[in-house]
Specification:
Length: 213
């Protein structure tokens, strides 16, 4: 069984990777565009390890229940976001080859992080744990909504793909939105995201709980 010290070091390494990767990405995008494009602001679902992982590490000795819930959220949506994006890779491609490579690697690392958390960190795959994960998702979605509303004056922005000011462009949901309207499809998208997170947790539960620390 891996020591807690080793596990924490690996999680810190993930934290540093996501931070440096995002800083380099934002710098190159700014350099390429000549100005900041708010469309690339890092607050999509796939950006959450950038914020949640350091927060989880900070809370691990201060509020273990909260840290456990956040770790479960990262595990569930890290796997979900990392896998789903490969169904439509158009958003991963940039004119700069390094940015394209970086995007692919980022999402692969999300999956790797999810598996590492499953195998080495205590998570909660119960219904109660799922409820907490849903609450965390909705808190993030609320923050995304606030960002969408307050920053749209500076340019196009669509955090979590739930901005009422932008047409839904996610695969499958784009077509649904054309039928039921943008506001309605945003609700459908949020519900589907919550259910998908639960499915990932259930699949992990079926595999069997890994080693815990």
């Amino acid at each position: 069984m891996k020591s807690k010290k080793y596990i924490v070091r690996v999680l810190h390494a993930f934290t540093i990777y996501f931070l440096l990767s995002e800083v380099i990405k934002q710098f190159l995008l700014y350099q390429e565009n000549g100005s900041y494009d708010w469309w690339h602001f890092p607050f999509q679902l796939c950006s959450m390890p950038l914020y949640d992982l350091p927060f989880c590490l900070f809370l691990r000795n201060r509020n273990k229940k909260a840290a456990k819930a956040i770790a479960t959220f990262i595990m569930a949506y890290g796997a979900l976001g990392g896998i789903i994006v490969f169904l439509d890779t158009s958003g991963l491609h940039f004119t700069n080859p390094f940015l394209t490579f970086n995007s692919y690697l980022w999402h692969i690392m999300m999956i790797v992080l999810s598996i590492f958390l499953y195998r080495n960190v205590e998570t909660d795959l119960s219904w109660k744990g799922y409820g907490k994960v849903c609450a965390i998702y909705l808190i993030h979605a609320l923050i995304a909504t606030i960002l969408n509303a307050t920053l749209r004056q500076y340019g196009s922005i669509d955090m979590f793909y739930i901005s009422p000011y932008q047409k839904m462009n996610q695969i499958v949901f784009k077509e649904i939105g054309e039928t039921i309207g943008n506001s309605s499809v945003i609700i459908v998208y949020i519900v589907a995201s919550l259910l998908a997170g639960g499915i990932v947790m259930y699949l992990y539960h079926l595999i069997g709980k890994g080693k815990e620390c």
